[in-house]
Amino acid sequence: MANQRAEDHAAQERLKIKSTGLMKKIMKRYYFQAKMAHWLRKKVAWITSGGPVEPLLAMNVIPIYPENHGAMIGATKMGGALCETSEAMGYSRDLCSYARADIACSIVKGGPIGGLPRPDFLVCCNNICGTVIKWYEIQARFYQVPLFIFDTPFNHAEMSPAAKRYVQRQMQEYIEFLERVCRKKFNEAKFQEVGLRSIQAQRLWQQVLDCCAHQPAPMSAFDAFFHLALIVTLRGTKVVIDYYSQLLDEMRQRIEQNISAVPNEKVRLLWDNIPIWYRTRWLSDKFSQHNACLVADTYTSAWSGVVHLIDENHLLDSMAVAYSSIHLNVSIDQMFQKIAALAQKYHVDGVVMHSNRSCKPYSFGQYDLQNMITQRLNLPVLIIEADMADERNFSESQIETRIDAFMEIFE
Amino acid sequence: MKQLQIFEQVIDRPSEYCWLLKTQTHRKIIGYLCSYTPEEIIHASGALPFRIFGHADSTIRADAHLQAYCCSLARMALEQVLSRGLDFLDGTVFSHTCDTMQRLSDIWRLNSGLALHFDVVLPSKLNSESAFRYLVDVCYQFKKDLEAAFRLKITDEQLSESIHLYNLIRQGLQELYHVRSQHPGAISGKEMDLIMRAAMRMDREEFYQRIMDVMDHLKREASMKCAQNFKRLILVGGVCDQPNLYGAVEQAGAAVVWDDLCVGSRYFQGLIDENADPIEAIAKRYFERVICPAKYRDPNFRGEYLARIAREKNIHGAIFVMLKFCDPHAFDYPFLKDHLDQVGIPSLRLEIEDPQLAIGQLQTRIEAFVEML
Fold first, then answer.
1. Are B295 and B263 in contact (CB under 8 A)?
2. Which of A8, A277, A374, B37 is most exposed, with the fewest beta carbons within 10 Å of its own?
3. Centroid of chain to Cα A212
């Protein structure tokens, strides 16, 4: 018996991704530094997850991501209570749960890290949604700080020359804005350095994700959701490059040693939309029980999916175009192309879509995508109705039944 | 008012009106959903701009494309086109507004079966020179797209004529609003709503003639009607696809004397400069017009605007008409309410999930609210 337990324990340990501990340390240090920013005489800017952060780093500003904070709030199951606080302030329960939780957090200083450090200014890029504009307006009023909107026209078709001119011009305006609020000149050389590091980090992250094309996959999308935090919050810094290099080595070793995320991987699935943060473990276990691994997703690749559009010799201009071209800023047909490419690259057998009440630009169109996937790719699709950070919108028994029924298709 | 009967057909039986127009004049008809659509350009091409509202008996077909947490405007508009209720349209134009409309455009393009589809992706921020340049570019592109689709040339003269007509219409509507504000009850809320909606659908020349008739009539009658002591209300929101609301307000002893709606004052505010380059001038009006919450100008703009308008119009109370699942308006609500509170104007929030539902429950809340004023 004792032997058996020891063996089980060893097997469990073998499965664990070792870099995880380091990652937690890096994130802790990042938030600690951010909280001490004013003491360190550094400025703090809040920025949207898909916003051009590189100019901020070049100006020595600490970027803070309310969306990453929202994910942490979700993962620590504090979303429901914070959302309720904002609902008491008059915000409708139907609004984005990241925004609701964040608005509440500013006032009650709650959440897993006792609220975010006060911003000196805000940078909002609407390449992910229109919601962020409303959300950042609220925070601009609350903190009485300047707000820069980086407006990225939506691409129903190919990006127009007019849109390109517009976003490239805004990159200049963004820099002028930074010079004004930071009261110093923009450092071109430093920006170049940060930009190249950002590109390198995006490529490394993509390589990490690419490891999951291997059968069986050395990690799952649930792992990717976790390790994603660095490419979101710290891209452009050296620590990200070091970390992803290490993670990549670990993934390659796992492949060599035939260690997989799901021990007996039989079914390979693709995830669409933002994770259900408060249920990642539950969902991961649930799919594992069916010997299914979520090997790829449309979400984590958003931070590397446009790196090919960045030209190292024309960083500012090409970045403006790249940031405008991300997965959420394109039409359903273009999203389908992306899903089709992922499905082929990662050899998936089916698709799981999270219909996310909080994220309309990600979720509306999923029914049409479902049809395209079943008809053109001949893959089964499961749609789960939930919410990314408000755990009150999760019906366990209903979702469990749906997953069980879906998995029967593969038996 | 019998002068209003002419407007009813295009609102209640739009197919009949549009098919008749098409057979008689062979005019193209282009549908649109948002007050940011530069309809003057459509009009100059010879086509009729036709605004689609959120009216449908069911949403069975739309439910296969949009989740339950999508607003009724998008669902019902989609239902109309999927149930072939908009077959008289030659195409549709989507001007960029909110996340829902952005995705609805894709779903519409893939499923509507209409021949033409245009996306006029306006800027979301309307406060910089580069945003204005981009808006001008987008309007030029839209003109080109229409020219290509209809195989014709839109001349500056045609644009100027359309601009002139639209200016007359907008001035006319504004004047009607002033009559309504000065003589509450002279024209009922439901009647004004009907006129506004017809303004976005009817043949515009004819519409202009007809509102002139209405105006003449009102000028003769208005003085008689202003004796009643109405509580003066403002409606705030996007679309108000609930015309029965006005009746409920009036029954409670109040009158809507102004609004901040995209089917109301936001539609007619701001005239187009008739002496400038037509496309630039059109773009300038949309750039400078009072913004809707899906557009950004400055974080405080809408609150300050609403408080100012409410004071100017001697408003006693405000009703927020919130379409359930409409994010931009829901985000602005606490802030707007706050601004009204600061100037001592009480407000009531009505959330409307399905405009088809009976007004009963809303009526009770409206009565209680008006009583309190």
1. no
2. A8
3. 18
What ipTM goes with this model?
A: 0.96
Q: Is B225 helix (H, G, I), strand (E, B) or coil?
A: helix
Q: What is the largest CA-CA distance in chain A?
A: 71
Question: Quick check: A137 and B299 CB within 8 A?
Answer: yes
Structural contact between residues A61 and A44, judged by C-beta atoms closer than 8 angstroms: yes
Task: Using the predicted structure, report yes or no on whether residue A3 has a pLDDT greater than 80.
Answer: no
**Which stretches within A16-78 are classed as H helix?**
20-35, 54-58, 66-75
- Return the pLDDT at B186: 87
Asked if residue A66 has a cis previous peptide bond (ω within 30° of 0), the answer is: no
In A82-141, the residues whose Cβ lies within 8 Å of chain B are 89-92, 94-96, 99, 126, 129-131, 133-135, 137-138, 140-141
| Sign, CA torsion A181/A183/A188/A192 | negative
Q: What is the pLDDT of residue A1?
A: 57
Are B47 and B208 in contact, with CB atoms under 8 Å apart? Answer: no
Q: What is the pTM for the complete model shown?
A: 0.96
Asked if B122 contacts B96 with a C-beta cutoff of 8 angstroms, the reply is: yes
How many residues would you count in chain B? 373
* Bridge partner list, A353: A272, A383
A-B contacts at Cβ under 8 angstroms: 142
- CA-nearest of A407, A354, A360 to A383 is A354
Tokens linked to B327: 């994010």
Least Cα separation, residue A152 to chain B (angstroms)? 8
Give the nearest partner residue to B121 out of A91, A140, A156, using CB atoms.
A156
For residue A404, what pLDDT is reported? 98
Which helix (H) or strand (E) segment holds residue A226: the answer is: helix A221-227
The answer to whether the peptide bond before residue A216 is cis (omega within 30 degrees of 0) is yes
Chain B residues whose beta carbon lies within 8 Å of the beta carbon of residue A96: 327
- Taking the C-alpha atoms of residue B246 and residue B233, their distance in angstroms, rounded to an integer, is 11
Chain A CB contacts of B145 under 8 Å are: none
Question: Within chain B, which residues score under 50 in pLDDT?
Answer: none
